[in-house]
Amino acid sequence: QVQLVESGGGLVQAGGSLRLSCAASGRTVSSYVMGWFRQTPGKERQIVAAISWSGTKSYYADSVSGRFTVSRDNAKNTVYLQMNSLQPEDTAAYYCAADVDYSRSYYLPSSPRQYDAWGQGTQVTVSS
Asked: Which of 40, 97, 101, 108 is surrounded by the most beta carbons within 10 Å?
């Protein structure tokens, strides 16, 4: 069973940057699609970015495209989300997730229901 732990969240001013990390343990995630989601109170969890097992294919929500970059280091069993030009509307709890149902897939699910393992989340707050 895979455990995911996010880190790197915090308070930042608009226009600033943060780098989130998602460290996996218990099982390697090097063969799985990994996703980053975010959620604000009262709203559904939404996809931010996803990355294929090899790191060669990625997906971004329109709202973050060009500002956020997802990457992974399979040797470290870790996935990253570099967030630049942060805006107050990026304020949310950020979660990483693994789609462990399919190995070595290039299909990047956008629905949270297609991911099986989740971290506990890290809060990102962007002040104006």
From this structure: 97
Q: For every one of its 128 residues, what pLDDT tens digit does the chain have, with 9 covering 90 and above? A: 899 999 999 999 999 999 999 999 999 999 999 999 999 999 999 999 999 999 999 999 999 999 999 999 999 999 999 999 999 999 999 999 999 988 888 899 999 999 999 999 999 999 99
Please give the full DSSP string across 41-52, using - where no structure is assigned: TTS--EEEEEE-
Residue 67: count of CB within 10 angstroms of its CB: 15
List the structure tokens of 5. Answer: 């732990």
The amino acid that residue 36 corresponds to is W
CA dist 25 and 96 (Å) reads 13
Contact 45, 121 (CB under 8 A): no
Any residues with CB less than 8 A from the CB of 99 and at least 6 apart, and which? Answer: 32, 33, 34, 35, 105, 109, 114, 115, 116
